[in-house]
Amino acid sequence: MPHEEPLPFWLVNVPREQWPDECPDFLRECGEKDRRIIGTPDAEHKKLSWEEVRHFISINRVDFFHRVPSELRRYRQFTHRLIKEYGSIMNFIVNERLQWKSMVARGRPFEYDEDIKILHNDWPYGIDDKIIHLVIWTKFELDEDPVTGLSTPESHLQIDGFVNRTFGAKLHPDKYAWFKNWKSLKSVHAVEHFHVMLYDPDPEFIKEITNGDVAMTAKLP
Prior knowledge:
alpha+beta; 4-stranded antiparallel beta sheet; 4 strands; 32% helix; DUF3605
């Protein structure tokens, strides 16, 4: 039986009739980690359970969160187009997703609702379909320890208080968790944000707090 060479990473998960002749522009600058993920068949990707998600957040190993390979490919294609059209991902986030005319906070952290916006994560990780992944965007800074990169104790309490006030009335504490990405993992550096994961929440509640927001991945073909 003849030996079959493995497919180049940029052809994996692509129907044969759609195979490009060469690596697309949006994948040429991929790092080794993204090449490995994109080069993995979707069928071999195991979605994380809620228990695994909570565990990784509890031990601050959010680097274990990966997108489904074909979704990561779509994400890179989308962000490549955004940079061409908007100049940067940040410009798209601020002008199209957040629609903030000013980035100046009205008050102290979490003092005014107008300084906060809750949206769906546009390109969620490969996790249980019952988990809703939200991003909390803020006009104010959330202090970090310059050595560890982790939230300062005061900032941690501020975020925790907001999350408990916002989600605790609707969900048991075991059904939601938050984390703030390490700087090295952030795709958008210039706009402060953190993440909230919720397990099987009421869809009407999510619709209400996101003002009917729909993730970009659900809007695009």
